[in-house]
Amino acid sequence: MLNAALVALVMVTTASTPQAKPAQNTTCPGCGGVVSAKSPTAMVRGQNYRFCCTDCGAMVQKKPDKFLHKDGTPKNRN
Ligand SMILES: [Zn+2]
């Protein structure tokens, strides 16, 4: 009985957790450099982004308002 309740709780929790979308940006949000599918990714505000290097990822995570619009679009996107 307890286990059933626990499973139900886990299912509800999982369903209500927004899933982060896969990174789709083609330029580094930090410096505008080219990124590819093999580039490192980092999560900023619950959204994954590709970065040219992990330093850019850490930089954007530190000051997301400087590099990202409120809707999550990178400001340096062409
Ligand atoms: Zn970069």
List its traits.
78 residues; alpha+beta; two-stranded antiparallel sheet; binds zinc ion
Commentary on this structure:
- The protein is α+β, with helices and mostly antiparallel strands.
- It has one domain (20-78).
- It contains three helices and two strands; from the N terminus they run αββαα.
- A two-stranded antiparallel sheet has the order 1-2.
- The longest helix has 15 residues, at 2-16.
- The termini are far apart.
- The model has no long low-confidence stretch (mean pLDDT 86).
- Zinc ion is lined by residues 28, 30-31, 33, 51-53, 56.
Ligands present: zinc ion
> H/E element string?
HEEHH
Number of helices: 3
Which strand order does the major sheet show? 1-2
CA-based shape = elongated
In short:
This protein is of the alpha+beta class. It is about 35% helix and about 10% strand.
Draw up the topology in text.
Layout: H1 2-16, E1 41-44, E2 47-50, H2 54-62, H3 64-67
Antiparallel strand pairs: 1-2
Bound molecules: zinc ion.
